[in-house]
Amino acid sequence: MESVHWNSLINPKFFTNHRLRSKNRAVLDRRDALLQSPLSLNAVELRRGRTFSTVRISRFSVTAAATDVSTRNAAVGGRDSKDAAIMTTAMSDVERRLRVGKSSAALEQLDIERGVCVPFRKYSPETVRSKVLESRGSVVSLVSRGVEIVWTLGLYWSTLVYDFLVGRDEEVVPFRARQLRNLLCNLGPSFIKAGQVLANRPDIIREDYMNELCILQDDVPPFPNEVAFQIIEEELGQPLEALFSKISSQTIAAASLGQVYRATLRATGEDVAIKVQRPQIEPIIYRDLFLFRTLASFLNGFSLQKLGCNAELIVDEFGEKLLEELDYTLEARNIEDFLENFKDDPTVKIPGVYKNLCGPRVLVMEWIDGIRCTDPQAIKDAGIDLNGFLTVGVSAALRQLLEFGLFHGDPHPGNIFAMQDGRIAYVDFGNVAVLSQQNKQILIDAVVHAVNEDYGEMANDFTRLGFLAKGTDVSPIVPALEAIWQNSAGKGLADFNFRSVTGQFNKLVYDFPIRIPERFSLVIRSLLTQEGICFTLKPDFKFLEVAYPYVAKRLLTDPNPALRERLIQVLFKDGVFQWKRLENLLSLAKENVAKMSNNPALRVKRVESKLDLTDTIKDGARLFLLDEGIRRKLILALTEDSKLHVEELVDVYRLVEDEVDIPTLAMEVVQDLPNVFRDFMLSWSNSVLSDR
User: Which parts of the sequence belong to the Protein kinase domain (predicted)?
Assistant: First the structure.
């Protein structure tokens, strides 16, 4: 009967795909073995506040260093025994701190996949267990909650089995999907959040259920003002009247984890939003996470074998993100990160945060006086140009994803505002996700491989991003990727949309042992949500007509060496220079600049009005002089088919002549000649020495 249920709810092609999954059983076993190995990273990115730095972490090196210091100092006759004791104590403390909240094997695998290490995290299975079992009444509470969950889900499960037995399982899917959504709402905040996660996980749940869970709302009745005001006073350590001259008597918004009030600061008269956490929500979340993790441990073997995904890993991803949302001091730091990233962008508004008025359960931030995207008619009535506003929104979303690697994880219409001056504003930064530099580069690689129609490398990108276990044979996936991309790209920019591509990708997930990492499920959710907002406000808006020019501009103007390398990969195919691609990139990049500089929605200072290619041309000239391989390819491109390609050069020049200040560029090139000559001589001497 269990197989019946999983076939009905999760994977309609389960039995037909079982044989294919069995072929990858050895790969899944190797993945499981990897998940049981300890963390030993050579180089990972550690996020401290707003900075990322490269660090070396090895759990074993801590103990080894302490032992080595103690032994060495003891050998010199105890002369430095005091120092040895201090060092040993320090090392032991470091080791203890690493083991407090020690990551499970699944969490360690997450760190490796993300390229981001979090040595001191709030979530770990051990931390959750100790929190839940620390009180005497915990066992009774756990049993009671467990019975409630098992009874509720058991009844639902039995209806699915009955539907299958009487042969009506497909015809009642819409009803059962709505029933599941309502069931999750009734089970409380942990299940509401779990449902929102499942809505973006085609590797776990079938598409028709996903579509229903996409509309799962986080709105719940507010808790009493008296309780909320008491929490504010406890967190801030002062009476409410001392901090605020007035505060709204009704909540502005209420969700499963907290609610929001509008207030005015007594000291400055500024309007602010106060976010207050629900009372006693943390013990409830910890209790449910403990039950989720216990259930995942029982189901892990089944999920690995039948579904190709690690149940413990999925729960750990979910638990880590949920506990981050509970910590409002972390949300305050997220706001500061976004403020730093968009400080020079006149098209985006991020609310300021009052850190001196923030605590784990209370967050005070600047009030955003704009129109929520939940009210399209109000935006139109305000006279805001919809096409211009949506162009700003798409550009801001792509900057978060591809430039900063820190993006809003829940950009639903209630969290996005249209400002009267045409800017886009974001609120609710509890759910954000981080993409490491490596992940960003692999995403750009995937775009480059798609442009070059290199589907074999696209499949390898899936492995590098964590969608496939290392060692998986990707050859069966290549034709499927080719079919998806050619079908989508063949429609052109006008008809391309992410939802159709995602629908086709969901079918691919059913056919192969693909797991969607949590950070990329948020990427998919973010893109789909924002595309949905675009279509709601303006049904004929072309998302990709804004996105593609932005990517072209990034490739042409970003000084990052990794992106320079990707630009070369785009411009050369099979060793042949692609003149038409260069012209298309230049045209698209100019289009992006024109759309932003002449945006009718913006009433603030204009953004850049020209495509600045100065650094790109300088880097290209330097590369031509120093890289013999590139130099040979460009000369061949200019003399291909035994003729000079002057016409192509003229076409390219006409595209850039208005964007480049030739005298200024010539002066900068002349000033840079000594450095270029030095690098040329170093390159030449290295080649001479290597020949010998």
Answer: 246-577
Instruction: Round to whole Å and give the CA distance between 219 and 192.
Output: 10
Catalytic residues: 410
Asked if residues 462 and 514 have their Cβ atoms less than 8 Å apart, the reply is yes
Strand 116-117 to 40-48 pairing: parallel
Residue 354 CB-half CA count within 13 A: 20
The pLDDT tens digits for 168-218 are: 888 888 899 989 988 988 888 888 888 877 776 766 777 788 878 877 765
Letter string b/e over residues 468-483, b meaning 16 or more CB atoms within 10 A of that residue's CB? bbeebebeebbebbee
Beta bridge partners, 219, equal: 255
- Three-class DSSP category at 418: strand
Structure tokens given for 674: 């000594």
Pairwise CA distance, residues 460 & 467, whole Å = 10
Question: Residue 39 half-sphere exposure, CB side, CA atoms within 13 Å?
Answer: 27
| End-to-end Cα, the chain, rounded Å | 73
pLDDT in tens, 522-555: 788 788 888 888 888 888 887 777 887 888 888 7
DSSP 334-397: HHHHHHHHTTT-TTEE---B-GGG--SSEEEEEPP-SEETT-HHHHHHTT--HHHHHHHHHHHH
What is the SS3 assignment for 273? strand
Task: Identify which of 475, 437, 471 has the alpha carbon closest to the alpha carbon of residue 458.
Answer: 475
Please check whether residue 213 is in contact with residue 181, taking contact to mean a CB–CB distance below 8 angstroms: yes
Mean pLDDT is lowest, of 230-244, 368-382, 472-486, for: 472-486
Mean pLDDT of 329-338: 94
Of 181, 133, 431, 186, the C-alpha closest to 294 is 133
**646-656 helix and 579-597 helix, angle to the nearest 10 degrees:** 10
Q: What is the DSSP string of 306-338?
A: IISS-HHHHHHHHHHHHHHHH-HHHHHHHHHHH
Q: How far is CA 675 from the centre of its chain?
A: 39
Q: Which of 428, 421, 276, 430 is nearest to 351 (CA)?
A: 428
d(CA 498, CA 215): 18
User: Which residue type, as a one-letter code, is found at position 152?
Assistant: T
- Cα dist. 111→46, 229, 469 in Å? 10, 39, 15
The alpha carbons of the chain give a radius of gyration, in whole angstroms, of 28
Rounded CA-CA distance 153/156 in Å is 5
- Judged by phi (left if over 0) then psi (alpha if -120 to 50, else beta), residue 466 lies in left
For residue 15, what is the DSSP state? H
Highest mean pLDDT among 80-94, 240-254, 538-552, 629-643: 240-254
Spatial CA neighbour of 547 closest among 692, 436, 401? 401
Is residue 449 within 8 Å of 435, Cβ to Cβ? no
